[in-house]
């Protein structure tokens, strides 16, 4: 947790945190559709398709963490609390919202490839 002195030196702006959350959700929604295309073309069925989505969504979150959060946290040690409401929001923030887009494009491309 950040101390009062650290918050005075570099305050956390609520509007920026909300913007980061919206951006992360948009990223998850777009990549979920791309993952659906990949799962459909590969012909994945049932649990394998959902595991594909889960694995690549977590990979997307890990890439966001490595390329955006880690360089910022090296300066002040705040980590994900500085950019998001919590660390769980970074890892699972867009999983449920992107699931419908994933299933839609998964079934579309599965049907197009297998027809």
Automatic annotation (TrEMBL):
Naming one, the record's GO cellular component terms include: EMC complex
Give the residue spans that cross the bilayer.
Answer: 50-70, 90-113
Reading the lineage from the top rank, the first entry is: Eukaryota
Just give the chief location class: endoplasmic reticulum
Q: Does the keyword Nucleotide-binding apply?
A: no
Q: How does the protein's chain sit in the membrane according to the entry?
A: Multi-pass membrane protein
Please report which protein family the annotation says this sequence is part of: Belongs to the EMC6 family.
Identify the species of origin. Answer: Amorphotheca resinae ATCC 22711
Q: Indicate where this protein resides in the cell.
A: Endoplasmic reticulum membrane
Q: NADP: is it a keyword of this entry?
A: no
List, alphabetically, the InterPro entries matched. Emc6 (IPR008504), EMC6-like (IPR029008)
User: What is one Gene Ontology biological process annotated in the Swiss-Prot or TrEMBL record?
Assistant: protein folding in endoplasmic reticulum
Q: Name one Pfam family in it.
A: EMC6
Name this polypeptide is given = ER membrane protein complex subunit 6
Q: Which PANTHER family match?
A: ER MEMBRANE PROTEIN COMPLEX SUBUNIT 6
Q: Which UniProt keywords apply?
A: Endoplasmic reticulum, Membrane, Transmembrane, Transmembrane helix
């Amino acid at each position: 947790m950040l101390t009062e002195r650290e918050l005075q030196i570099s305050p956390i702006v609520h509007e920026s945190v909300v913007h980061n959350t919206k951006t992360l959700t948009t990223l998850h929604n777009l990549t979920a559709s791309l993952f659906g295309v990949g799962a459909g073309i590969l012909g994945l069925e049932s649990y394998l398709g959902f595991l594909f989505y889960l694995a690549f969504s977590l990979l997307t979150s890990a890439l966001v963490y490595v390329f955006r959060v880690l360089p910022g946290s090296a300066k002040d040690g705040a980590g994900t609390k500085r950019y998001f409401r919590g660390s769980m929001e970074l890892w699972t923030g867009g999983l449920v919202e992107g699931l419908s887009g994933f299933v839609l494009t998964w079934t579309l491309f599965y049907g197009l490839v297998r027809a």
